[in-house]
Amino acid sequence: MECIGKGKASAPYEFGVKASIVTTNARAPGGQFVLHARTLPGNPYDGHTLDFVIEATERLTGRAIERAYVDKGYRGHNAANPRRVFISGQKRGVFGRIKRELRRRSAIEAVIGHMKAEGHLGRCYLRGRAGDAANVILSAIGYNLRLVLAWLRMILRLLLLLALHTFAVQPAFKPAS
Predict the structure, then answer these.
(1) Structure confidence by residue, pLDDT tens digits, 120-130
(2) What residue segments make up the domains of the chain, in order of their start?
(3) Which of 15, 65, 138, 146 stands the most exposed, by the fewest C-beta atoms within 10 Å?
(4) Which residues are CB-contacts of 88 (< 8 A; sequence separation ≥ 6)?
């Protein structure tokens, strides 16, 4: 556990470890999958971690990240292509599709909230930095599995309704005439 100075009047300090969570930004009927999750021990500046997180996500997914939408903690980042990183509240160079997607950035807050509440990311019972790292990764895996299970439940319901409808339409036997 580390002391993290937040600079807020209501809660100037928090205790824990920073975690970096990467999700998709597109609307998806089943929800947003977590693409990359990692702890950042030692309370590093957010902007200094952005380049590493983007590279790690591209390695994991095998696809280049077109645009990154981040919060204001990433001002002064060291990303390889700074023109593809958009910070919340940014006005310059933001119009049309990028403006809509930047508003959509707030959807990651719900993902983090679900991971804290349902995935036990809020409190880590594992020991040391390795335990913190394992907790974040396992929370991300659990979140993605819950999304997949919700999809499978929906598909099973559709199949059962289809089977029920098929048996209800056809009579069980035909009477002899």
Answers:
(1) 787 788 888 88
(2) 2-169
(3) 15
(4) 69, 70, 71, 72, 102, 105, 106
